[in-house]
Amino acid sequence: MSPLLTRFSATVVLLVCLVLFSGCATPIGVNQVSPREAYQDAYANPLNSGVLSDQSRYVLNRYDLLKKSHKEPALTIAALHEKALHDDRGDILYTLAECSYLYGSQLIDSLQVEEHKLAPDYFLLSVLYAYYFISGERSKKSLNIFDHRVRAAIDIYNFGLWQAFESGATEGLVLEAAEHQLPLGNISITLDTKQLPWKMEEFEKVLPADRYLVRGVSVRNRTAGIGLPLIAIMGKTGLPVPVTAILRVEGDLATLSAGTARASLELYSARDSSSVNTKDGIALPLESDFTTPLAYKMEGSSFFDLSLGAFLGREPNKIPDGLYMTESYRPGKIPVVLVHGTASSPVWWVELLNTLTADPKIREKYQFWYFVYTSNKPVIMSAAELRDALSEKVADLDPQEKDLALQQMVVAGHSQGGLLTKLIAVDSGDNLVQALTGKDLASLDMPEKKKAQVGRLLVLKALPFVKTVIFFSTPHRGSFQSKTWNRNLVRWLITLPANLVQTTMDSFDYMTDDVKRMLGGKKTIFTSADSMSPDNPVLKTLAEIPLAPGITGHSIIAVEGDGDPKLGDDGVVKYSSAHLDGMASEFIVKSGHSSQLNPLAIDEMRRILVENLTASRNP
Question: Is the residue at 395 inside a domain?
Fold first, then answer.
């Protein structure tokens, strides 16, 4: 073809292109997007979008590796690693972290066994590159607090730890000392558990908290920082505890390439440690998750069976009555004992517990326990079980009374649980016995064994280690829902153990006429509904007995609707019944009867606990 014809053909092609593109978008230009789309595009990375960020693409393009990274990611990472050994620009390390994490994600999905096995190695490489980027001298010269790559690198570090130590053979992570031969170097990792209050052998398994999505609570409480949040399951008790893992790396990229790199895998109790120090003495916050271990414990829990069915006695109680701890006993932390209400269970405290344990001040100074009881029994019997359970636990944990925090116990009760709480915090003398029988204990004409039983239930001394009590929606003067017809319905529906029925029947002849009329007959089953009747003289008497000296009380009272709250109720309990004179504080919240779920009521309990720490008796 002649040169003239060639130039003519090129001109024709150019004219055709101009015509074609005259009504279309140009090859280079812009498209309008929404702010959300703009944000997603600007901060896309392997973690949130499964693609490399613009910053990493820039680095790859600088070395003419961008196209190669799509087809040969392993060779691209090796080439870039070699560049990083001689180029002191910190952005190379960040790009290596992204490329390694993205390639590890691709390998984990591979159907090829050998490729799949390589995935943990590349995730570990992403952790190391991210660590070098965050802590290395080359990055410190150029990074500032506005550089979003810092947070992204920490996220790659945290999530890379999860997948680097995950075992496909067993559930959970494999956290142990080991030599790791990586595609681009070797590293020796030791395991450091000195900061844990437990031994590694005490854990049945260790799970990454981020593997799970949480349901059933208002907020998933997490703190941002460095490290992988874990759920460590205690082998003996099955209790899940929040732990955070970090990998502290020695040396630099050159030591990794030379095969002499070392690192320490350190584990921290998230309840006890909120930060770690660098070698320069700089405190770095630890990433933590306090909600997921709590929700993990509740998944499939038999606590959910302790509700209406258990109250009616129609379901076997899968969990024995007694005291349960949400974590292993920690000397120096004040116990807060949570006592649920009628036809309820500890799960009704989860919202409160989730909120309070997320507060660093509360978490540092308090530990939380539950009391579980079958709530259909007479209140005085359940209160005796609470008293015994607490006394036995304190004696078992601290027989020599050396733990001052254990002697500053806080007990919070909701509804009927509030009545149990008051019964362990008063010096009743013979007042309750007289309200039930019209006589003092010594004057009762009954067998000594029976008299001792009555004294155990009704002649009360406040527990010496209980110093603060909190009442949530408590019917101190009874519930208007415990009217005669309601109580009769409960008696008809309820099934009580035979020995408990016999005990109440044996006591009938000693009761006053008022109590007999309230019960309706000797063969009547005496239940917790009778205990909470506004007509019950024992309850009326208890309402007038002040808390024992040295015990501080607080009331949280729920009232529905508008108007004067002192004339209102929560659907179960009137304000006039929930109110007690002599309380250190009274907080009224617009809520139904389940006030322990209300955020404002929970915040009020936090205020009480913080105030309690400043009291002169606090250790």
Answer: yes
